[in-house]
Write a structure and sequence with these properties.
By secondary structure, the protein is an alpha+beta fold. Helix content is about 20%, strand content about 35%. It is an enzyme of class 5 (isomerase).
Length: about 300
């Protein structure tokens, strides 16, 4: 089996738990997830199976959307509701001021990763050091908030946020940073990941549903083919005469392409299919002298 399953991870499971269950149910070793969700978080977790594990790095790079609730006035050790309270402050629940501060985070900003994270420093995960009561200096990293909206004000001290962001963004840190800007502190009280690239809540299934579909031999109906991830790129088909070069991962001369106009129009990345319709991979359109050819970028043979 090769493709991507969009799993709705429920609370209580680690991302590794989800992968382990899918491996066991499908009796398949090549399974990998595309971005950790904490046990207390829930939502969309694309899982790559078989040859699709080659696209994990691509999916990790995709924009992600979250629905989070930030509780103002209370700061915690973990920046979420599972940590110990560090400080409590009164909250001025001024909607206009809160909205202004929240929207000021749109764009690129320097975010300091939390101590309770899996980032490694000198070979040790930060959360391991945090559990030992240690705090070490962390370098700020650039993250991008493409959009952030307050979807609900929940008196007396909570706001619901809809966030579209880059990979590597810690939403609990964003909540804490919003609280710091407001002068009252904050922590994240709940988190749902609603989108990862083309995957969203509506096309994701829970683990129990996944098991039922496997039992009913209907799992193929919801597996997303690898090439679906790259549908924004134009596609070409290679003639049978070019199949040897194709299967060997060599560059492909334009004379082997059935629909050359699509390749010429592309200028950059293009999807390549064999004569019988199998997706081979992504190629770059390149020029050597006066000759056009396709150069392999990512193969899924």
């Amino acid at each position: 089996m090769n493709g991507i399953l969009s799993i709705y991870k429920e609370k209580g499971y680690t991302s590794h738990d989800v992968v382990a269950i899918i491996r066991k149910v499908l009796h398949q070793k090549r399974v990998g997830h595309t971005g950790t969700l904490d046990p207390e978080a829930e939502g969309v977790l694309p899982v790559c199976i078989g040859k699709a594990t080659k696209v994990v790095e691509f999916l990790i790079e995709q924009k992600k959307r979250y629905l989070a609730i930030a509780k103002l006035g209370i700061s915690t050790t973990t920046q979420d509701h599972t940590g110990d309270i560090i400080e409590s402050k009164p909250v001025d629940f001024d909607k206009s001021k809160i909205k202004q501060v929240v929207q000021s985070f749109i764009g690129e900003y320097e975010q300091v990763p939390p101590m309770y994270s899996a980032i490694k420093v000198n070979g040790k995960k930060l959360y391991e050091l945090a559990r030992q009561g240690k705090t070490i200096e962390r370098k700020a990293r650039k993250v991008h908030i493409y959009d952030i909206k307050i979807t609900s004000f929940i008196p007396p001290d909570q706001i619901e946020l809809d966030i579209l962001c880059s990979k590597g963004t810690y939403i609990r840190t964003l909540c804490a940073d919003i609280g710091a800007q407001l002068g009252c502190g904050a922590h994240m009280s709940s988190l749902i990941r609603t989108e990862v690239g083309i995957f969203n809540i509506n096309n994701s299934i829970k683990l129990d549903e996944f098991k039922e579909l496997v039992d009913q031999q209907e799992i193929d109906n919801i597996i997303v083919n690898i090439d679906e991830l790259f549908r924004e790129y134009p596609s070409v088909t290679i003639k049978k005469t070019g199949e040897k070069a194709l299967m060997n991962g060599n560059k492909i001369h334009f004379s082997y392409i059935k629909n050359k106009h699509e390749a010429i129009k592309a200028h950059d990345i293009i999807r390549v299919y064999s004569d019988c319709g199998n997706f081979i991979g992504l190629y770059n359109v390149a020029i050597e002298g006066e000759e056009f050819y396709l150069k392999p970028l990512k193969l899924f043979l």
